[in-house]
Design a protein that fits this description.
- The chain is of the alpha+beta class.
- It is about 30% helix and about 15% strand.
- It contains 4 helices and 4 strands.
- The strands form 2 sheets. It has a two-stranded parallel sheet with strand order 1-2. A two-stranded antiparallel ribbon has the order 3-4.
- A hairpin with a 5-residue loop joins β3 and β4.
- The longest helix has 11 residues.
């Protein structure tokens, strides 16, 4: 999948499962053009989120995620990794912005 909506074809067995099971296939994107079929003609439930949350849902493998109780995956030691473990703190974001963003970039 892609954040901008150009995913390409789905596997035929996936399309058959959506059609035969009357499944409401969902997608999540960070763009500002959210409408049915934006990601793929077979998706009917489309949601907007920040780019970081799009990645988190992709890592989790489902839009039916409870980030508080369900891990995104496992680390190299087999321990659960939750969104809170990888999400930057306000201080980390502030420090990064202060170090890397200047007014000259916008002139």
């Amino acid at each position: 999948m892609a954040c901008i909506g150009n995913t390409g074809d789905l596997a035929p067995e996936v399309l058959d499962a959506i059609s035969d099971g009357d499944i409401v296939a969902t997608s999540i994107l960070s763009g500002n053009r959210n409408f049915e079929g934006r990601i793929h003609p077979s998706t009917r439930g489309n949601y907007l989120a920040s780019p970081a949350l799009v990645i988190a849902y992709a890592l989790g493998g489902s839009l039916d995620m409870d980030f508080e109780t369900q891990p995104l995956g496992k680390d190299q030691n087999g321990n659960n990794v939750f969104l809170k473990d990888i999400w930057p703190s306000r201080d980390e974001v502030k420090e990064t912005v202060e170090k890397n963003l200047t007014s000259k970039m916008f002139k």
